[in-house]
Task: inverse folding
């Protein structure tokens, strides 16, 4: 049967899944803990940009949709913490590491939501980019992560469609509404492309992750897939993508597009984005202000257990 | 890619560390959902809650927001017993007894469906 490592790689190569009690290389486990924790944190922090507009949604219907979407993000975070725990880490530790600024989350949530049209752009572009990435992750070699992705992908489709519908309405509205939609696209386009990470030539851990089938498609290939899918959708809205170098390349069968501002990319990763500090402050405050709820629930459970005894 | 935030030049990758003094939160519960009548409950994930009733309410909100189930079970994770992974070899041996499989018997075509 060979060594543990050979058996592990054979399971991965055969497109079978690694499950929590299986032997796995320490590097594989560490890579997954880091990635699943970042993913979970991203879902939780991702509630804030949209939560910002719940109280100002233009209609009761839109408000109900937005609340359902933000609740989904909370649910996605919980599915993912649950997957991370199968690797032997504690949920409370992960959360504490996030509060202390020792764990990162997707940089996209460090941009502010300035208008209602941003709710449309986030659903269409940010969730669209997330779907591109997460569909790949449904085939990830680690069973609990892949299964969480399947559930998440089903729900993300609602997120993307409701966002695009918001932009259809605005694009066909008054000139001011259309301008608001264009402004949102202008601000969210490049950060959305940054969601796919550094170029393949600068991506340090990719090769090993692809060998382990944690990651199945390279950053640049996913980004290209996203651009090809999104450009015609912008056309349907009658909006212009803010990239003068964007054009169809007949020979490649793909859109060519301009260079990402990598200086900005690394600045936000390092913590100097427009909203990095506010996001963590808000998250930490919510956790502290919720302490009495957790204490009350614990006390109530203890009282009921005493009475039942 | 989206949720694999790269390590910035000059920075170190996040550490996985146990936090001193971090609360050892509520116990973990495994969640099982029956998708519809006629099929079994299937494991869908886990969550933390102080007691069974809260665990059930949380399971409903976390795992069945779109009518994914008609029934939910929660079980304390600590109450689940399983074989050690090394015991997997016994399953391999079980597979060697192919005479247990219906398809290993030759029945002439003229006998028809059996």
Result:
């Amino acid at each position: 049967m060979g060594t543990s490592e050979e058996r592990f790689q054979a399971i991965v190569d055969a497109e079978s899944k690694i499950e929590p009690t299986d032997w796995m290389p320490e590097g594989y486990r560490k890579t997954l803990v880091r990635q699943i924790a970042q993913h979970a944190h991203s879902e939780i922090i991702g509630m804030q940009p949209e939560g910002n507009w719940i109280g100002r949604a233009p209609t009761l219907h839109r408000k109900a949709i937005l609340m359902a979407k933000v609740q989904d993000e909370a649910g996605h975070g919980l599915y993912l913490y649950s997957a991370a725990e199968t690797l032997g880490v504690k949920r409370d530790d992960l959360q504490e590491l996030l509060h202390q600024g020792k764990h990162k989350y997707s940089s996209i949530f460090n941009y502010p939501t300035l208008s209602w049209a941003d709710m449309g752009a986030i659903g269409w572009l940010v969730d669209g980019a997330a779907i591109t990435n997460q569909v790949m992750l449904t085939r990830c070699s680690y069973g609990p992560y892949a299964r969480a992705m399947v559930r998440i992908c089903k729900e993300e489709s609602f997120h993307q469609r409701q966002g695009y519908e918001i932009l259809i309405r605005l694009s066909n509205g008054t000139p001011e509404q259309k301008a608001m939609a264009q402004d949102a696209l202008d601000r969210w386009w490049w950060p959305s492309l940054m969601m796919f990470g550094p170029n393949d030539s600068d991506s340090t851990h990719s090769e090993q992750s692809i060998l382990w089938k944690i990651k199945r498609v390279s950053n640049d290939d996913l980004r290209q897939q996203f651009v090809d899918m999104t450009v015609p959708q912008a056309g349907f809205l009658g909006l212009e993508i803010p990239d003068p170098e964007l054009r169809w390349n007949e020979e490649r069968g793909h859109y060519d597009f301009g260079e990402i501002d990598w200086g900005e990319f690394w600045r936000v990763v390092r913590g100097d984005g427009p909203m990095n500090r506010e996001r963590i402050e808000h998250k930490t405050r919510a956790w502290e202000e919720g302490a009495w709820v957790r204490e009350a629930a614990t006390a109530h459970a203890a009282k009921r257990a005493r009475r039942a005894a | 890619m989206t949720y694999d935030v790269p390590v910035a030049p000059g920075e170190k990758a996040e550490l996985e560390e146990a936090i001193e003094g971090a609360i050892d939160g509520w116990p973990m519960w495994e969640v099982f959902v029956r998708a519809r009548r006629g099929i079994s409950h299937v494991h869908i994930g886990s969550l933390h809650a102080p007691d069974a009733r809260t665990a059930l309410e949380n399971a409903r909100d976390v795992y069945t927001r779109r009518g994914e189930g008609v029934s939910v079970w929660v079980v304390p994770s600590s109450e689940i017993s399983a074989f050690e992974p090394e015991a997997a070899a016994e399953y391999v041996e079980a597979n060697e007894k192919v005479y247990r499989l219906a398809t290993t018997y030759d029945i002439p075509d003229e006998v028809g469906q059996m």
In short: Chain B touches chain A through 39 residues (CB under 8 Å). Chain B has a mean pLDDT of 85. The longest strand of chain B covers residues 41-48.
